[in-house]
Specification:
Structural class: alpha/beta
Radius of gyration: 21 Å
Order of helices and strands: EEEHHHHHHHHEEHHEEH
Strand content: 5-15%
Largest sheet: 5 strands, mixed
Distance between the termini: 32 Å
Number of strands: 7
Number of domains: 2
Length: 277
């Protein structure tokens, strides 16, 4: 991840393939709702979904049809929704969007409305809009309402080498580490070994060293119970800290993830318990 002040150099290694099976249901935070079928999801553009979600906010989705909710707002050039669409120069045909919503089958409509409703319950308007005038596309990706921009990594581990010139080594955690055997070593010892492996890997690039680094990063996530974490190393011991998901979402909104797709940041998330017994 690039630092906004360009003080940190970044090296990336590819995530290893995930062996986790697909889920019939995804989770939006703590709310289990049916996954939006790809055909239904992809029948709306990202901009159309932004307008749909914005127009549905604050409305009773349990009792009202999305088409009935959106139609008055889309038909009225003076409505708040239409003014926002004009201000943001959103390329959405109001008539086409209204027709799409009205053409949904009862089953498709129920799935879409339950997905949107669950998102409203889980995330605040501040989180959803991310300081913009419309719901952030990345947050719609987290909710499964918009397709991810690519294959999503399960998590992220950044190694920060605090030398004279700071250096950040970014490791995308491609697979869920929960099924890994528990390491007899403490998280601190794993972090120290990981930082050392990164230093050695910088001196001599090899596929074997890359795989060792990737394995140690997954082992550290398994040990700490953190999906997104950072290891600081200054020549002595290593310090571990969790990266708040809100910070990563901010990085994604500013384009600072360099195309990295992360579950829970700009892609749907598979639940991850904070600790194991």
């Amino acid at each position: 991840m690039n630092n906004r002040n360009d003080l940190l150099s970044t090296t990336k290694i590819s995530p290893r393939e995930s062996s986790a099976e697909s889920f019939e249901q995804q989770m939006v935070g703590t709310f289990a709702v049916p996954e939006l079928p790809e055909a239904l999801r992809d029948s709306f553009s990202a901009c159309e979904m932004q307008v749909t979600v914005a127009g549905a906010m604050g409305r009773d989705l349990a009792e009202n049809h999305l088409g009935d909710i959106l139609a008055p707002q889309l038909l009225d050039p003076g409505s708040a929704l239409r003014r926002v669409m004009q201000f943001t120069q959103l390329t959405v045909d109001a008539d086409v969007l209204r027709d799409k919503l009205n053409a949904l089958s009862p089953e498709a409509l129920a799935i879409l409305q339950s997905r949107i409703g669950a998102m409203f319950k889980e995330y605040s308007p501040v989180e959803l809009f991310a300081s913009g005038y419309l719901p952030a596309i990345d947050m719609l990706r987290v909710a499964g309402l918009v397709a991810p921009a690519g294959k999503a990594a399960w998590g992220l581990c950044n190694i920060v080498l605090e030398d004279e010139n700071w250096f950040v080594y970014q490791i995308a955690l491609g697979s869920d580490p929960r099924d890994l055997p528990e390491s007899p070593k403490t998280a601190d010892r794993i972090a120290e070994a990981l930082a050392l492996a990164v230093r050695l890997g910088m001196e001599q690039v090899s596929g074997i060293m890359d795989q060792l680094i990737c394995d140690l990063a997954h082992m550290l996530a398994r040990s700490t119970g953190c999906r997104y974490l950072r290891v600081h190393q200054n020549g002595g011991g290593a310090r571990i800290e969790e990266i708040p998901v809100q910070a990563l979402r901010g990085d994604a909104a500013r384009g600072e993830l360099g195309g990295l797709v992360l579950e829970g940041v700009n892609a749907p998330i598979t639940p991850f318990p904070p600790r194991w017994s």
